[in-house]
Design a protein that fits this description.
Length: 341
């Protein structure tokens, strides 16, 4: 009978774990659709539409905590059905040590995440529905963590330990002490009350800050409205015309600059061609001067040879005195020819 009851509880909590897993998955899909830059409020839907009511917490903490807790409870019930002798269990069965602290920390993380979400909205476009969405994320995560630890978690832990003892047999003395469990429950409740008081104070401060932000946004909206009403439409038209004229002038200046640049490039190309042609002409002149010099030298040499032949012919017909005078004249002619060359 006890085993049958254990199997029934095991099936119930296994189904609850599967349901919580689907709710967590649907919540994750909804959280991934969050878009603070859209500028208008949106309704988010997950792939499992009948579980959208669980997707109000965009940190997904409020759906993860039940899922994780149901999985641990299911594993604890399965441990009861294991064959063999009864095993000693810890004081945190079916959970683990520091489970309650971790659950409360997850709730606070969801609260901080909800407050951080507000900073991603544009100041001039934030709406009250956006603030409500962020507040739901901040408060639901902490609320689920508190409910899971105190009204559900700690009594469930005590009941599971008692059920384990009844089904598997008595444990050693001191292994299951209800008074110790109650003391622990009282200590955790006191600690949670302090944390809840701090969270409440933080929520009040945050509410005052939201009111101040709303007041500033309204003032900014009024100033913008006054500015828009007091600004003459003719001034805007004049500014548009001035901007259009300046744009046209800039385009003309750009076109003239491109034309001048093109002209300068063409002039540079022509100048380079002229320099190249002058260099060729200079080289040609050097070659022509060399040829002329060579021709002059050859002509002077030919003239000297011709004169020598002439004087040689004359010398054969002249007397000694005439030869001497002829050689004297020949020397002078050579000097003159050399000077001319």
């Amino acid at each position: 009978m006890k085993n049958i009851l254990t199997i029934i509880f095991l099936i119930v909590f296994a189904v609850a774990a599967v349901f919580a897993a689907l709710a967590w998955y649907n919540n994750i899909c909804i959280a991934l659709q969050w878009n603070p830059t859209s500028g208008h409020s949106e309704e988010y839907h997950g792939p499992i539409s009948w579980l959208d009511w669980c997707g109000v917490d965009f940190s997904t903490v409020s759906t993860f905590i039940p899922f994780f807790g149901f999985v641990l409870i299911t594993m604890g019930l399965a441990r009861i059905l294991l064959p063999g002798k009864a095993h000693e269990i810890s004081a945190d069965y079916p959970f683990f040590k520091s489970y309650n602290s971790i659950t409360m920390a997850l709730g606070l993380i969801g609260t901080v995440y909800g407050l951080i979400m507000i900073g991603y909205y544009q100041p001039g476009r934030v709406q009250m529905s956006d603030l409500v969405l962020c507040l739901r994320t901040a408060l639901y995560s902490t609320l689920v963590a508190l409910i899971w630890v105190f009204p559900f978690g700690i009594p469930m832990k005590t009941m599971m330990q008692y059920f384990y003892v009844k089904v598997r047999g008595e444990k050693k003395s001191g292994d299951f002490d209800v008074i110790t469990q109650l003391r622990e429950l009282g200590a955790v409740s006191s600690d949670a009350s302090k944390r809840l008081g701090k969270t409440t104070n933080s929520a009040k401060r945050f509410q005052h800050q939201l009111i101040a932000i709303k007041t500033e946004l309204l003032k900014i909206g009024e100033l913008f409205k006054q500015f828009r009403e007091g600004f003459d439409i003719n001034v805007i038209i004049t500014l548009k015309e001035v901007c259009s004229d300046m744009r046209n002038s800039l385009n003309q200046i750009r076109e003239e600059s491109n034309a001048r640049k093109k002209t300068v490039e063409e002039q540079q190309k022509a100048l380079q061609q002229l320099v190249s042609q002058l260099e060729k002409d200079r080289q040609s002149r050097k070659e022509l001067a060399a040829l002329l010099q060579k021709a002059e030298e050859e002509r002077a040499t030919a003239n000297m040879r011709l004169l020598e032949k002439v004087f040689e012919g004359i010398r054969s017909t002249l007397t000694q005195r005439e030869k001497t005078e002829a050689w004297s004249w020949l020397g002078k002619v050579r000097k003159i020819v050399a000077a001319l060359a």
